[in-house]
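Reading a protein record of the kind used here takes only a little practice. These numbers are not coordinates but entries in a learned vocabulary of local backbone shapes. Here is one such record, which you should read through line by line.
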Amino acid sequence: QVQLVESGGGLVQAGGSLRLTCTASGDIVSRNAMAWFRQAPGKEREFVAGITWNAYRTNYADFVKGRFIISRDNAKNTAYLQMSGLEPEDTANYYCAYDPHHAADWLSPPRVEFEYDYWGQGTQVTVSS
């Protein structure tokens, strides 16, 4: 089992920045993929960004438009999502996800939920206009 704990959400004005943190614990494997998804009220959960175990590959949803950066610190079993230029449309609950099977760093991290075996509880991001 792997436990994921997110933090860093909050209320921010449009144009502001936040950094989300996801810390993993438990049966961590050295080669994995981690990702951020989000779910706004009344909408389905959607992929935001993903990163391979050594950060060789990252990928982003189109709506990120260069505003977000995903990174990780394997010594701390932690992934980050640095968000800037936030817009009210970014308001959502942000979830961290962990794929213990994605060892191939030449393949981009999965963009679909079913590839990820473990999920955090989420952290709320609210962007006011």
The chain has no helices and eleven strands. The mean pLDDT is 96. The CA atoms of residues 65 and 85 lie 10 Å apart. The two ends are 40 Å apart (CA to CA).
